[in-house]
Amino acid sequence: MKEPLAMAYVNMYGVLGTLENLCAMDRQAKEILQSLKKPVALCLSVKGGPCCTFRFSQDGCQMTPGPEGCTCKMHFASPEKFNALIDSGKPGLPAKHPVQLLSFLLGPFTKLTDRLTQLLRPDPSAMEDPDFFTESTILTMYTIAGAISALANTDSISKISASYTVDGEVSLGIRGAAQVTILVENHRFTTVKAPAQHPRAVMEFDSVKLAHGLFTGQVSTINALCSGSIRLRGMISMVDNINRILDRVSAYLA
Q1: 32, 104, 202, 250: which sits with the fewest CB atoms below 10 Å from its CB?
Q2: DSSP 3-state assignment of 3?
Q3: Sheet-wide strand order for 230-234
Q4: Phi and psi of 35, rounded to 5°?
Q5: Alpha helices, DSSP H only, in the chain?
Q6: Cβ atoms < 10 Å from Cβ of 27
């Protein structure tokens, strides 16, 4: 069963957090950003839940925790209300500069989130294009990586696995395509969208095709491990605990 608060963190740090990567990678997203006449810093604040600011400019998107420096703000009365934004496009309450907020939401923000949805929930025919396939798979990896930490810190089941995870960096990635770091400190997880500097454990997929198969359940993890298509090394207990959390990620992102 999905927990509303944990789902809110997954939506913030997993789904919307991938806007950073979308704006860095995707041609259409870059074109949308060029329509911005000036930077916009949108804060999404959830009562009893996450609060982050998304800074959009013609150069890209950056997400930071907290409301500092926001130029417009939307407040959600509960995690459930925030989740409704992702599930059905229901906005929250304007809390700062409503005119700018409405203009941005109805324009660039909606276009960007629509494009993100196209890539994270792709039409099968679109995946026949090799470039789209690669971009979709990499963005999915970033979403999953954000969701791992979100659930490790908030989901009651995932927190059990987190409680057994020792401190250190876990390197997750697709060989030659993308790398992320799961940083563990005192059983609290943080996703860093950059290669690990001092990995204590490594889990790497040998191709984008394999990663897509694993993410969609079309490829057996056990078979991939046996064939050597998934490279594991270091403190394997850390990877084991992350794999248990990944089972919860699959349920939340289904």
Answers
A1: 250
A2: coil
A3: 188-192, 178-185, 168-174, 199-205, 230-234
A4: -80, -10
A5: 4-9, 19-25, 27-33, 79-88, 98-104, 110-120, 130-154, 158-163, 208-215, 221-227, 236-253
A6: 10
The pLDDT score that the predictor gives to residue 223 is 87
Tell me how far apart the alpha carbons of residues 111 and 117 are, in angstroms, rounded to a whole number. Answer: 10
Residue in this structure with the two tokens 């998304």, named with its chain if needed: 54
pTM as predicted: 0.94
Distance CA 138, CA 110 (A): 21
Q: At 186, which amino acid appears?
A: N
Residue type, position 52, single letter: C
Choose among 116, 115, 108, 139: nearest CA to 41.
108
User: 40-46 and 51-57 as β-strands: parallel, antiparallel, unpaired?
Assistant: antiparallel
| Spatial distance between the Cα atoms of 181 and 193, rounded to a whole number of angstroms | 6
- For residue range 220-252, list pLDDT tens digits in order: 888 888 888 999 999 999 999 999 999 999 999
48 within 8 A of 78, measured Cβ to Cβ: yes
Q: What is the C-alpha R_g of the chain?
A: 18
Q: Which residues pair with 230 in a beta bridge?
A: 205
User: Tokens 């789904």 correspond to what residue?
Assistant: 15
For residue 75, the cross-strand partners are: 45, 93
CA atoms lying within 13 Å on the CB side of residue 156 = 5
188-192/168-174 β-pairing: unpaired
